Amino acid sequence: MTSIAIADEVRAALAAGQAVVALESTILSHGLPPGRNRKVAQRLESVVREAGAVPATIAVLDGKVWAGLSQAQLDRVCDPESGLVKLSRRDLGPAIALGQDGATTVAGTAAIAHAAGIGVFGTGGLGGVHLPLPGRVTSWDVSADLDALAETPVLIVSSGVKSVLDIEATLELLETRSVPVLGYRTDHFPGFYLRESEHELSWRVDTPAQAAKVFAAHRQAPGQAGVLLANPIPAEFEMDRELHDRLLADGIQLLKDQGVQGRDVTPVLLEHFHTASGGVSLDANEALVVSNVTLAAQVAVELAGAESTRQ
Ligand code: PSU
Ligand code: MN
């Protein structure tokens, strides 16, 4: 198997059974504007540390897979001049072989995290099932994030899936692929920029310890893989619903007008939200990812504690 360059601090924490949290890099390189992305990268690593865990931001640099980045490597990931490509799980082989620089999506990050021995991962929004293209009834644009969760024993904390997706279809597919979705202090699936969607969830947890317990049980049960912990955006950053619905309708029109497809859909839509909302969605995005990563760290700490008492 390809060797993963694990940062010394991350390696030491893993060897000692301490809590480690994986962080993705696509949200930095493709999801947030330059400048702001570097600040968010720093903040995410800080909140993980404050919660008592070690952050491991994951990316591919010069064809090498990294788990845990130095400050200079984070600078590189956040600099648009670096031209990082967006790497889903299928892109890892080509990027490694061709010596490329790339930022990993949830799917790519989950695969690498698991291979490195990291079980908990915090992000903004999970990819999902896109809305159908004009003239089509169903969409074949289904994020590989869903398969990665179904096949990789990791716990991912997200604020649901971006509201630009077909949420109902995404939840159905997660059920088909046997991924449990736990609402964190909620009975409803969160709506990314909004705290709630109309979709009810079957499972709810109210503490990081409960989430850790579910994940520990789930990954040991026969034939099981990942768990999605769905954490609503902090109330003070929730977007006004009318503004949200307007931005969404305009964004979908923009995709149609410009013929945007494939892996460009998510970055183009996020960029539209950020400019058209005058930065409101950017603050919301930062707040939710900070909150998710904090919760991921709390769960990782509980998990590490539970594992150490068992031994
Ligand atoms: N959530 C965000 N910002 C992002 C993404 C998610 O708040 O930039 C990224 C993640 O890396 C996710 C990816 O895995 O978008 C999904 O892209 P696609 O729909 O092309 O699979
Ligand atoms: Mn896609």
Automatic annotation (TrEMBL):
Q: What residues sit in the active site?
A: 24, 162
| Residue sites binding substrate per the record | 86, 106, 143-145
Q: What InterPro entries would the database entry show? A: Indigdn_synthA-like (IPR022830), PsuG (IPR007342)
For this protein, what does the record note about how its cofactor is bound?
A: Binds 1 Mn(2+) ion per subunit.
Q: Which residues form a coiled coil?
A: none
Q: Does the keyword DNA repair apply?
A: no
Record key words, sorted = Glycosidase, Hydrolase, Lyase, Manganese, Metal-binding
Listed binding positions for Mn(2+) are 141
Cofactor(s) recorded for this entry are:
Mn(2+)
Under Enzyme Commission nomenclature, its number is: 4.2.1.70
Complex formation: Homotrimer.
UniProt xrefs under PANTHER family: CARBOHYDRATE KINASE PFKB DOMAIN-CONTAINING PROTEIN, ZGC:136858
General function of this protein: Catalyzes the reversible cleavage of pseudouridine 5'-phosphate (PsiMP) to ribose 5-phosphate and uracil. Functions biologically in the cleavage direction, as part of a pseudouridine degradation pathway.
User: What family classification does the UniProt entry report for this protein?
Assistant: Belongs to the pseudouridine-5'-phosphate glycosidase family.
- This chain's protein is named Pseudouridine-5'-phosphate glycosidase
